[in-house]
Amino acid sequence: MRSRSDLVVTLVVALSCAASPAAAEPRADLSGTQGHTDSTYGRIEGDVGIVAGAGIAGGPRAPRAALDLRLRYLDTIGVFGTYEDASIIGTSSEPRRLIATGVELRPLFLGRWLTGRDLASGRMDLVIDSIGIELGTVFTQPVGTSFSARPGIQLGLGLELPFLASANGPWIGLHGGIRWSDAAISGAPLAGPNDRALYLGVTLAWHQLFLAHAVDAGDRAPK
Prior knowledge:
Blueprint: H1 4-24, E1 48-58, E2 64-73, E3 77-85, E4 97-105, H2 108-114, H3 122-129, E5 132-141, E6 152-162, E7 169-180, H4 182-185, E8 196-210
Antiparallel strand pairs: 1-2, 1-8, 2-3, 3-4, 4-5, 5-6, 6-7, 7-8
């Protein structure tokens, strides 16, 4: 029969062997191999990103077809342009067409990355980082008229869902908020959805990063 000291030594060795692999095992990277995890998911490989998407924008009475184009710097701040047209899909939406342009701010990515607050889940990190505020102007074309000469205001929120755990590739975009016409901003009585309306756009988009050297442009030596 083993002595009490032999039994203690055996238990210590067994526990050490069981704990060592878990402690020494490195986190998996995005490709599924063992190694360092890129918590930016490719976003530091380029400083300028382009997003192009198409989908449906829900509005008063009926949906409109939507085209969306965005240009982003460090995936944090950027500009966007959206075109919505009910005639493309044959619906009777009001307004019939609209063009919206503005800026967006997505502040969570840099703060999360610089403080190391990643969740080790690529898709979830990317979804959280995609939350942004959008502010812009909107030109509407009511049914039977031309585009308004004076723009209204658009205020919204954005959220995007990646298919892959990567900054580049296909995404689903969700952008919604509220729009006011110039008349509504001036305090005139509201005449309908052309003056104030909620909106929600759902797009299938492609995200692509490029290295434009916008970050270090001032540090590059002239040729």
